[in-house]
Design brief:
Blueprint: H1 5-23, H2 28-36, H3 38-62, H4 67-77, H5 85-91, H6 96-125, H7 134-161, H8 163-191, H9 196-224, H10 229-240, H11 244-254, H12 262-284
Helix pairs in contact: 1-7, 1-8, 1-11, 2-6, 3-4, 3-6, 3-9, 3-10, 4-6, 5-6, 5-10, 6-7, 6-10, 7-8, 9-10, 9-12
Length: 293
């Protein structure tokens, strides 16, 4: 179940490119916007950082899945705010600006949330030492920050210095990231081919339920708290779409366990398929979106 050397090289490369591409789409105003829409950002952040891991924990606790799959699902839930969520939010006629702000906030918080959730998952499902090891948590937090925030910062710097280059570079960077991500999924499938069907069966059901439940709850909570439809759609997408590349990094490189990466590999096509249905529905629906001021 250990990751190959090629995997350990490809995963950080994929994540670095994705974060660089995301950074080239961000400006400082995206962070300042948090102060402009505190209610929407607070609700969206709650959905990403609290609701999502909680739903994941409940699912893996009641479903008959292996401990490695359970840990993989929890790590996936700890990695909110995938770079592609901003595009999906825009295509779903959601509040793209809010989506970008939520992705930026979740990226900043990931260095703290991911080590804690990962540590709890390892202790709960694999029986590893459950006591908080501050040094291990700090080490993982630093690694997560370096591999995510540094490329984001570099991308923002590139955009500030040369906006035209950043605009041109975003598309090829995203395409290259997707290609490498697909190759990574294929590599993990080959690595786990002996028990792949069993793992896919377990992870597929959990992944589908996780995506549908979190999106439904995210949208419902946002509407109940009187956010407008566009903001609610953005929160729904942000809660449902995860940073698969970051989850791959943690499972295959930091924890050196490809079995834990199976839920991540399964979740990626699941969330893309559901996103496709949502994009089609919101674009072909005759219902007019009304923004509440």
């Amino acid at each position: 179940m250990e990751a190959t050397v090629a995997t350990k090289i490809i995963v950080p490369l994929v994540l670095g490119m994705m974060m660089l591409g995301m950074g080239m789409s961000l400006v400082t105003a995206d962070f300042k916007r948090v102060l402009m829409y505190p209610k929407a950002v607070a609700i969206g952040t709650f959905g990403q950082m609290i609701l999502l891991p909680l739903v994941a924990f409940l699912l893996v606790s009641v479903m008959p899945i292996s401990p490695e799959i359970a840990v993989g699902v929890m790590i996936l839930a700890a990695c909110p705010g995938g770079p592609g969520s901003n595009l999906v939010a825009m295509l779903c006629k959601g509040d793209a600006a809010l989506s970008v702000s939520l992705t930026a906030v979740s990226s900043l918080l990931a260095g703290f949330s991911i080590p804690v959730i990962t540590h709890i998952a390892l202790g709960t499902f694999l029986g590893q030492q459950a006591e908080l090891d501050i040094f291990k948590l700090f080490d993982m937090g630093v690694k997560v920050c370096v591999i995510t925030l540094v490329p984001i910062g570099l991308g923002m710097l590139i955009r500030k210095k040369n906006p035209m280059f950043a605009d041109r570079a975003q598309k090829p960077v995203k395409i290259a990231s997707v290609v490498f991500l697909i190759l990574l999924v294929i590599g993990i499938a080959v690595k786990e081919r002996d028990n792949l069907l069993s793992l896919l069966e377990q992870a597929g059901i959990v992944g589908l339920l996780l995506c549908m439940l979190t999106m439904t709850l995210g949208y419902s909570i946002a509407r109940l708290l009187r956010l407008d439809i566009r903001q609610s759609r953005a929160i729904m997408i942000e809660v449902g779409i995860q940073n698969a590349a970051l989850a791959f990094l943690i499972t295959t490189v930091m924890l050196d366990n490809t079995a834990m990466a199976i839920p991540v590999a399964v979740y990626s096509p699941v969330m893309l398929t559901i996103s496709g249905f949502l994009i089609a529905y919101f674009n072909f629906s005759t219902k007019k979106v009304v923004t509440v001021k």
